[in-house]
């Protein structure tokens, strides 16, 4: 290995590698995993004590308080603002509502919904608690433009089970040239239009009747709510709470997934360490429940989000052995944007060697370009079998 296993370094934060490809003349500064001790930044303000006490009693995992508090933040700010827009319709007020709450909450909410769909937020048992566990995808999600009750089928059942495979996963990236903007536009259009048909069809042909009914009802409720917002509300209310959020969140979701799954190894596309990558030490990780550790999330989607930095240290050897891509001090947004501008060298300059084969800068760029090419055949199995836990919510 080019880099020894993680060792204690600066202020107790472990060193996990060095910048650069590791070849002669390409060994940069030491990299420490600051995400391990970084302060969380998902929730914006604390709830009253009685709310915190109720959450502590009812949360399935106390570590998910950050998710629950964020949902409380949204409920007491965004919902009243939507009511205000309904009562006093105005495109000016609507545009402020959309811009403000998406800037504050969109990234945070998408990842809060994501992790609280993988793992139940509230304790299982009563009908009331099961209803609470559905609020994230049935009530909160439509506020941000995500069709009601469709996220679980798309993400948990389709994306994680079929693992970015083109002929199965609606949001699969591997058939596209992933540093080509026009290819991304085709990808976005397919999702925008195709999701309304492909998701129900996916459940139907697999005889997942319950999921078929849920997603069909969710789409029907979404369209009905859009009609009601326009017919019984107003044009400004419908535009800024329904139509614009749907366009914006569809774009954000597809740009995010495209960026996360831009690098796919053509030889072994089902390997969870080669169909995505990790981004470390960027403020986005503290706003998105450590979403940057995406290789680990695909390797085992039931790992709790708070455990990712420690698990990354534990799995350094696997990242090295499986030649995973690791980047430092950039987020997924930066990676996606850099690819659109063909800035492969910029990404090479943020690469971290944690023990992968030694490469020059030029060899790193060549490796990335190889993993960006469209794939012409699919279904290759992972040559590194992993123990995958069920993706069903705990």
General description of the model:
With 394 residues, this protein is mainly alpha-helical. The protein contains 15 helices and six strands. Strands 1, 2, 3 and 6 form a four-stranded antiparallel β-sheet that branches. It has a two-stranded parallel sheet with strand order 4-5. The longest helix is centred in the first third of the chain and has 28 residues. The N terminus and C terminus are likely disordered.
Distinctive features:
394 residues, mainly alpha, 6 strands, 5% strand
Question: What about the largest sheet?
Answer: 4 strands, antiparallel
Discrete helix count: 15
Gyration radius, rounded: 21 Å
Q: Round the mean pLDDT to the nearest integer and report it.
A: 92
**String of helices and strands:** EEEHHHHHHHHEHHHHEHHEH
> Which band does the percent of strand residues land in?
5-15%
Helical fraction equals: 40-55%
pLDDT < 50 runs, ≥5 residues: 1-5, 385-394
* N→C terminal distance: 37 Å
Choose one word for the global shape.
globular
Give the tally of β-strands. Answer: 6
Helix- and strand-based class?
mainly alpha
Topology, pairings included?
Elements: E1 7-8, E2 14-19, E3 30-32, H1 49-58, H2 65-87, H3 91-118, H4 127-143, H5 151-162, H6 181-205, H7 209-233, H8 235-260, E4 277-280, H9 284-287, H10 294-299, H11 308-314, H12 316-321, E5 325-328, H13 332-340, H14 344-348, E6 352-353, H15 361-370
Parallel strand pairs: 4-5
Antiparallel strand pairs: 1-2, 2-3, 2-6
Helix pairs in contact: 2-3, 3-4, 3-8, 6-7, 6-8, 7-8, 8-13
């Amino acid at each position: 290995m080019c880099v020894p296993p993680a060792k204690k370094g600066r202020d107790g934060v472990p060193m996990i590698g060095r910048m650069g490809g590791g070849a002669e003349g390409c060994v940069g500064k030491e990299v420490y995993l600051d995400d391990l001790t970084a302060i969380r930044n998902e929730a914006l303000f604390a709830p009253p004590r009685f709310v915190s006490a109720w959450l502590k009693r009812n949360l399935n995992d106390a570590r998910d308080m950050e998710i629950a508090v964020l949902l409380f933040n949204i409920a007491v700010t965004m919902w009243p603002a939507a009511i205000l827009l309904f009562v006093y319709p105005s495109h000016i007020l609507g545009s402020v509502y959309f811009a403000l709450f998406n800037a504050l909450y969109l990234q945070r909410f998408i990842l809060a919904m994501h992790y609280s769909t993988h793992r139940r937020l509230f304790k299982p048992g009563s009908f009331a608690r099961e209803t609470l566990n559905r609020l994230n995808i049935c009530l909160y999600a439509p506020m941000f433009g995500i069709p009601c009750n469709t996220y679980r089928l798309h993400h948990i059942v389709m994306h994680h089970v079929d693992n970015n495979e083109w002929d199965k996963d609606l949001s699969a990236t591997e058939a596209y040239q992933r540093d080509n903007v026009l290819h991304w536009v085709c990808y976005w259009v397919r999702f925008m239009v195709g999701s309304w048909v492909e998701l129900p069809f996916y459940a139907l042909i697999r005889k997942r009747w319950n999921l078929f009914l849920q997603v069909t009802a969710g789409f029907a409720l979404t369209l009905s709510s859009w009609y009601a917002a326009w017919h019984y509300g107003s044009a400004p209310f419908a535009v800024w709470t329904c139509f614009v959020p749907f366009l914006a969140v569809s774009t954000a979701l597809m740009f995010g997934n495209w960026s996360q799954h831009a690098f796919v190894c053509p030889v072994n596309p089902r390997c969870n360490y080669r169909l995505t990558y990790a981004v470390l030490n960027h403020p986005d990780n503290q706003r998105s429940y450590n979403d940057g550790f995406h290789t680990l999330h695909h390797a085992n989607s039931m790992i709790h989000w708070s455990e990712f930095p420690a698990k990354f240290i534990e799995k350094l050897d696997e990242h090295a052995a499986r030649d995973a891509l690791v980047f430092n001090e950039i987020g997924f947004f930066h990676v996606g944007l850099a690819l659109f501008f063909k800035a492969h060298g910029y990404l090479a300059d943020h690469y971290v060697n944690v023990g992968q084969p030694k490469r020059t800068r030029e060899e790193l760029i060549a490796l990335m370009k190889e993993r960006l090419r469209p794939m012409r055949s699919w279904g290759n199995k992972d040559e590194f079998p992993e123990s995958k836990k069920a993706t069903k919510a705990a």
